[in-house]
């Protein structure tokens, strides 16, 4: 329901919808208010061309223009979920505001898990939808902790735009850099929101400067605050040149007023800076700026929109979600500056045409193309989240899983509001919905069968930490296995394996918190208490030089024997290689029948799963098969697979293997007087300091190494010789003796 009662003052309306620089000649401000048309929209130059030719717009064009699919992402504790809670309140989606940590026993709507409310963090991304001034906005609230980065990854994969939330005190932090990199990877246009202007030490201009330097954003403020910290009273809209104040118990009444006299000069300076920054990436605005012509609010708004959608500019909004200030203008910015589904280029791969790239129109008139990007185990079975890129999906329809080639009926179609569901009969291109009863994996593509398209997959980082777990009670083994299978299906970064030496179940993930959450969920959701071993670092092994192999596997024990000979070499892959294992058959002729080559590759892959140094997987390795021999009777797939395994083990030592350890990017913020002590401690712990910035009275140290502060996975790199010796000795000591 609307939360903007009409103002009783006609003068206020005039001030709200006009400015000294905006010369509108069309409809009156009152008419604009009554119609709800608060923003001048220019979706594409094609619209004007069609109007000139008298062409009729497609039936879906207007509704698609008024759809926004956005994500809210940030560093941990920057206020993402608090912001989403306010968005839902001001759009009438919820009728009470609840705080993140659930102190009132309720908690934020988007944090539906008990663990999320207890810990005050977002663990799973949550989807919802709302309406703002006739625009339908689909929102995904994502976690900020690096351990749950896959949730951000798969959300951004399917979204058209994003809000990057930055803390006005903490500024651009390590996970801010990570989520911004993810946005770049999926080419997601974004607006920035500098939050917590009410906090002590708030400095939005410092944060804007950091965004330009650390994130390489071409950005400028579209708002500026009236006061900061406890004196934060409101905002000044630099586009329309007006002051905004937020009245009412929850800031629901946005009141426009005059700009304070002592700020007029600064406002003029900041507005000129905004126009200049946008004109650097927009030719239309540049012409007016260079000619020193006045720029109206409508012209500036259109230029910001063009530059934002082209990912050449990031408009910066400001406010305090917790103090209920600045959220409604941010929503205006979402509908004004972020793209609708048809303004974003999405591509599929045509499986009938050698995976040729196909541009999707985003039209509901086209064939159905939908991507499953997230799975959850719900009360009624598996819940699959779908982003529909083209076409229409209806309850009861038959759809095709292109990856598995299975034909499936859609038994139930819902629209999500956190953990609540609303049943719907159909959904069209541009929407995010969920379906029950569909067996699939994350990343699978669905069509109506008329095309055979698949969407490109998302990037999944490798786990960096492992734990040994086992159920306390033997009777709970079934529930234990069921829980692990479900968690693996839901989360691509959560892996389960079996230690061949100890026969223990090993779970791997993105960090201690990530794994602790799953152990706790196992206890709460499946009533399985588990004992947890010490954290085990996910080391890797690799080789540093080329080594030859020539191995004959020959076994005779009556009847058909085993015979297979393989010859070739192993060598390290280049550091910039995207593949971690390569196998190449360079045999000329039929020394080994082609039917046995897959078995040889399988043998080498199996051998590379466990290096001889400490038993960890071997990566960045290329294996080349150059020759071999076979026997007409005794050769078999098993014989050649065993030959490959033993050949790998024999040549591995000659290839001078080394151990790789995961390297993390660590950021620590400490008072300047402790800078030397902390840097020294980092060096003792084999951390490598790569940067040191000054923020007021604090020093911000960036380093490579292991840490428990704000950090993200970077890469695996070789350990020192003494560490390698220790690890090998420890591994050998745990091996069972004959």
UniProtKB/TrEMBL annotation:
Pathway this chain belongs to: Protein biosynthesis; polypeptide chain elongation
Keywords: Elongation factor, GTP-binding, Mitochondrion, Nucleotide-binding, Protein biosynthesis
SMART domains (UniProt xref): EFG_C, EFG_IV
InterPro entries, A to Z: EFG_II, EFG_III, EFG_III/V, EFG_IV, EFG_V-like, EFTu-like_2, G_TR_CS, P-loop_NTPase
Domain Tr-type G: 65-342
Location in or out of the cell: Mitochondrion
SUPFAM superfamilies in the record: EF-G C-terminal domain-like, P-loop containing nucleoside triphosphate hydrolases, Ribosomal protein S5 domain 2-like, Translation proteins
Chief location: mitochondrion
Region called Disordered, residue ranges: 1-31
Signal peptide: none
PANTHER family: ELONGATION FACTOR G, MITOCHONDRIAL (PTHR43636:SF2)
UniProt similarity note: Belongs to the TRAFAC class translation factor GTPase superfamily. Classic translation factor GTPase family. EF-G/EF-2 subfamily. Belongs to the GTP-binding elongation factor family. EF-G/EF-2 subfamily.
Protein name: Elongation factor G, mitochondrial
Lineage: Eukaryota, Viridiplantae, Streptophyta, Embryophyta, Tracheophyta
């Amino acid at each position: 329901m609307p939360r903007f009662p009409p103002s009783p003052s006609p003068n206020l309306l005039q001030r709200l919808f006009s400015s000294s620089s905006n010369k509108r000649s069309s409809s009156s401000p009152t008419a604009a208010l009554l119609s709800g048309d608060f923003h001048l929209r220019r979706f594409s130059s094609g619209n004007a061309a069609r109007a000139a030719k008298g062409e009729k717009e497609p039936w879906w064009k207007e509704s698609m223009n008024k759809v926004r699919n956005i994500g809210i992402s940030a560093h941990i504790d920057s206020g993402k979920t608090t912001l989403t809670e306010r968005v839902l309140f001001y759009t009438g989606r919820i009728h009470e505001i609840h705080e993140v940590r659930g102190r009132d026993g309720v908690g934020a709507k988007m944090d539906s898990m008990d663990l999320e409310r207890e810990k005050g963090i977002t663990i799973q991304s949550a989807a919802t939808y709302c309406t703002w001034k006739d625009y339908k906005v689909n929102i995904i609230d994502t976690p900020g902790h690096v351990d749950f980065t896959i949730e951000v990854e798969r959300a951004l994969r399917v979204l058209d735009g994003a809000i990057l939330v930055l803390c006005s005190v903490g500024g651009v932090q390590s996970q801010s850099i990570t989520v911004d990199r993810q946005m770049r990877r999926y080419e997601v246009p974004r607006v920035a929101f500098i939050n917590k202007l009410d906090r002590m030490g708030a400095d939005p201009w410092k944060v804007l400067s950091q965004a330009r330097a650390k994130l390489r954003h071409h950005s400028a403020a579209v708002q500026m605050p009236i006061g900061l910290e406890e004196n934060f009273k409101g905002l000044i809209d630099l586009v329309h040149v007006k002051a905004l104040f937020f009245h009412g118990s929850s800031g629901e009444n946005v009141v426009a007023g005059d700009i304070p006299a002592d700020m007029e000069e600064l406002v003029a300076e900041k507005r000129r800076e905004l126009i200049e920054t946008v004109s650097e990436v927009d030719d239309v605005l540049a012409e007016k700026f260079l000619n020193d012509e006045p720029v109206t609010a409508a012209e500036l708004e259109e230029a910001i929109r063009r530059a934002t959608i082209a990912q050449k500019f990031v408009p910066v909004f400001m406010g305090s979600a917790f103090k209920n200030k600045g959220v409604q203008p941010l929503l205006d910015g979402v509908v004004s500056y972020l793209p609708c589904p048809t303004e974003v280029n999405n591509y599929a791969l045509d499986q009938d045409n050698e995976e040729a790239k196909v541009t999707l129109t985003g039209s509901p008139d086209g064939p159905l193309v939908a991507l499953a990007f997230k799975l959850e185990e719900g009360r009624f079975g598996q819940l699959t989240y779908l982003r529909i890129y083209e076409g229409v999906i209806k309850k009861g329809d038959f759809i095709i899983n292109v990856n598995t080639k299975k034909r499936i009926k859609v038994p139930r179609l819902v629209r999500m509001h956190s953990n609540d569901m609303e049943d719907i009969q159909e959904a069209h291109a541009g929407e995010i919905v969920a379906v029950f009863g569909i067996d699939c994996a994350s990343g699978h593509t669905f069509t109506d069968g008329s095309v055979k398209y698949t969407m490109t997959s998302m990037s999944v980082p490798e786990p960096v930490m492992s734990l040994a777990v086992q159920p306390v009670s033997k009777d709970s083994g079934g529930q234990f296995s069921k829980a692990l299978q479900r968690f693996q299906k839901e989360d691509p970064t959560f892996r389960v394996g079996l230690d061949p030496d100890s026969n223990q179940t090993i779970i791997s993930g993105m960090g201690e918190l990530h794994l602790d959450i799953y152990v706790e969920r196992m206890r709460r959701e499946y009533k399985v208490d588990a004992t947890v071993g010490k954290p085990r670092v996910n080391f890797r092994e690799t080789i540093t030089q080329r080594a030859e192999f020539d191995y004959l596997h020959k076994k005779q024990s009556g009847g058909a024997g085993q015979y297979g000979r393989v010859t070739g070499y192993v060598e390290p892959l280049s550091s910039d290689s995207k593949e971690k294992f390569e196998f190449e058959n360079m045999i000329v002729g039929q020394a080994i029948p082609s039917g046995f080559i897959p078995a040889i590759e399988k043998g080498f892959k199996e051998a590379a799963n466990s290096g001889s140094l400490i038993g960890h997987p071997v990566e960045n390795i290329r294996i080349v098969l150059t020759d071999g021999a076979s026997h007409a009777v005794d050769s078999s797939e098993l014989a050649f697979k065993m030959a490959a395994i033993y050949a790998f083990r024999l040549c591995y030592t000659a290839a001078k293997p080394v151990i790789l350890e995961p390297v993390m990017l660590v950021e620590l913020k400490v008072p300047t007087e402790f800078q030397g002590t902390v840097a020294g401690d980092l060096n003792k712990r084999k951390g490598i300091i790569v940067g040191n910035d000054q923020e007021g009275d604090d020093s911000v140290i960036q380093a490579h190494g292991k840490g428990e502060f704000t950090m993200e996975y970077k890469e695996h790199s070789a350990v020192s010789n003494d560490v390698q010796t220790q690890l090998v000795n420890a591994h050998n000591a745990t091996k069972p003796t004959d």
